[in-house]
Hints:
Layout: E1 3-15, H1 18-56, H2 58-89, E2 97-110, H3 115-119, E3 121-126, E4 129-135
Parallel strand pairs: 1-3
Antiparallel strand pairs: 1-2, 3-4
Helix pairs in contact: 1-2
Amino acid sequence: MDKITIKRPVVWKAVVTDQLKEELRQxxxxxxxxxxxxxxxxxxxGKRILPExxxxxxxxxxxxxxQIEEEKQKRRQAREQLTEQMLDIDKLETGEEIARGTxxxxxxxxxxxxxxxKLYVEIVTKDDKVIELREGRLEA
Length: 140
């Protein structure tokens, strides 16, 4: 065998534009709203379940209350992080590249290939349009 097809990670980068900043704000806003709804749902479940549970099994009710509070706290912390990220959007400079995620692609590797050059791939977008494909070594 002198060649093989492998899966490799592809870094997705985006050029910062006003449109991208607005998309990021909307994504974060939706995530914050989702967390707010989850917190409200936990509070509602606690108010609905705990009184009956307290009458039946006080120890179990206390455990359940603590579990609900821990879940609410996790969501509050996540919400706080998202709020900080929202503030960071304004600090992004137009034209700079930011990482948006990682995708996968397949590539063929043959005997004698420079593997590190084959494994490093980037897709660069600007306002959701691919403007550049990069393949090769990661610059140090």
